[in-house]
Design a protein that fits this description.
Number of strands: 19
Strand order of the largest sheet: 3-4-2-7-10
Largest sheet: 5 strands, mixed
Structural class: alpha+beta
Strand content: 15-25%
Length: about 425
């Protein structure tokens, strides 16, 4: 059983710019090489621009935990010893020394925080709370978590450009199994919740099968979407990284789901239509730095239909992965320089506190505590005096009532005695 090593990197150098890449492969050495060979990052100042040294770390969502404060973001990475060799030599040296903190200046999101049975939304909310520079933007990552939100945004593009210029597939949405869309064409493709990579996706041939599927959906609490099944031989993927485009034709070899199992890819030329689809989709949710548009081609009619848009988790083709990641690195550097040029300042390490300053701070805190206790005792004294006055008033009222009752009883007894004496 591997021993778990807690790794928390701390940014100490004033000229260091920490970049955290969140992806499944955790290839720190690869990203470090890319950023070392990329254009420089500059901290724009009033007198001169200082070059910043990019320090790159990589981890998966499952290895990451964080705490966000009003002025900083502290991340913790947990890895087992088998992953030690994938770390940079500098990181290996720091791990051997103990526990360190990581204050990222920029977070590059390359994998989705949710999947079938996996939910790391809380970490994404933490990045949003910290307002740290994220690529893709944190707004787009949050909005693209849910399929209905993305489809609604794509419908806005279609309404603006027209169905011919932006052919989006028709889709229905149901909040639960008890609200299935009426008039759905079959065969249909049903997608449950926000799962991706083929999970939660099935082909429903007819209404009878839909009845069985509905009984299964009733067990869970997820929403689902449905769209007509389009017979096809292959699909399109239009990839956009910054201003760089690629278009692939892909066909599944083992499943009707092209993104499941083996698939054959073929790069094809970029057309104005495909470029328009990618450019318009890149405007979603404040802008997407990297994205892919997936479309399907009806083999009977040749009609092209956009089925979905993917964000920062878009994977690159293995044959072009290194080239595309270098392009992406240059785009990231450009975004960082633009962000710094707007007056933003990357997180600095906390200032060193001297023992004298620490003692003065403790004395101030102690004085404030004593002053608060005095004020609390004064409040208690005022309350005690008010309570005593209330008791005196209550006692006076009760005493008056008691004496009145005694005098009343005495008068009655006296009257009875006088009447008895008169009869005698």
């Amino acid at each position: 059983r591997p021993r778990t090593v807690t790794v928390c990197f701390r940014m100490d150098a004033p000229s260091e710019f920490v970049i955290l890449v969140i992806e499944q492969t955790k290839a720190e050495l690869k990203w470090k090489e890319y950023f070392d060979n990329a254009s420089p990052i500059y901290q724009h100042g009033a007198e001169s621009d200082a070059r910043l040294v990019p320090t790159v770390y990589s981890c998966a969502w499952s290895e990451l935990s964080l705490v966000s404060y009003s002025d900083s973001l502290i991340c913790t990475i947990k890895r087992d010893e088998r992953q030690y060799q994938s770390m940079t030599p500098d990181a290996q040296a720091r791990v051997a020394g103990g526990v360190f903190s990581l204050k990222p200046s920029c977070v590059v999101i390359r994998s989705c925080p949710t999947a079938a049975g996996i939910n790391h939304r809380n970490l994404l909310w933490g990045l949003a709370h910290a307002d740290v520079l994220c690529i893709n933007t944190i707004e787009s990552e949050v909005m693209m978590l849910e399929r209905p939100v993305v489809h609604g945004a794509l419908r806005q593009i279609q309404q603006r450009l027209g169905a011919k210029a932006f052919p989006l597939i028709e889709q229905s949405y149901s909040p639960d199994a008890g609200h299935t869309a009426i008039g759905q064409e079959f065969p249909a493709v049903l997608k449950v919740g926000s799962a991706h990579a083929g999970a939660g996706k099935m082909r429903v041939p007819n209404y009878r099968m839909m009845d069985d599927v509905s009984s299964m959906l009733a067990v869970g609490e997820d929403y689902f979407t449905m769209e007509a099944y389009v017979p096809n031989d292959w699909e399109l993927r239009i990839q956009k990284v910054g201003t760089h485009y690629r278009v692939f034709k892909r066909a599944g070899c083992s499943s009707w789901k092209v993104n499941v199992g083996a698939a054959v890819y073929e790069q094809i030329p970029l057309t104005e239509t495909y470029k328009r689809w990618a450019d318009e989709s890149a405007k979603l949710f404040g802008g997407l730095d990297v994205l892919s548009v997936d479309a399907i081609i009806n083999k009977d009619t040749g009609e092209e239909l956009i089925i979905e848009v993917n964000g920062g988790e878009t994977g690159f083709h293995p044959d072009f992965e290194k080239e595309d990641e270098k392009v992406y690195t240059e785009h990231i550097v450009g975004r960082i320089n633009a962000w710094l040029g707007e007056g933003a300042r990357y997180p600095k390490a906390p200032a060193v506190v001297t023992p004298l300053e620490l003692e003065v701070a403790n004395l101030k805190n102690e004085l404030l505590d004593k002053e608060e206790k005095i004020r609390q005792m004064e409040r208690w004294g005022v309350r005690a005096r008010d309570h005593a006055r209330s008791l005196k008033r209550l006692l006076a009222v009760k005493t008056g009532k008691f004496l009145g009752a005694v005098f009343g009883v005495s008068a009655v007894l006296t009257g009875v005695a006088v009447a008895w004496l008169q009869r005698q």
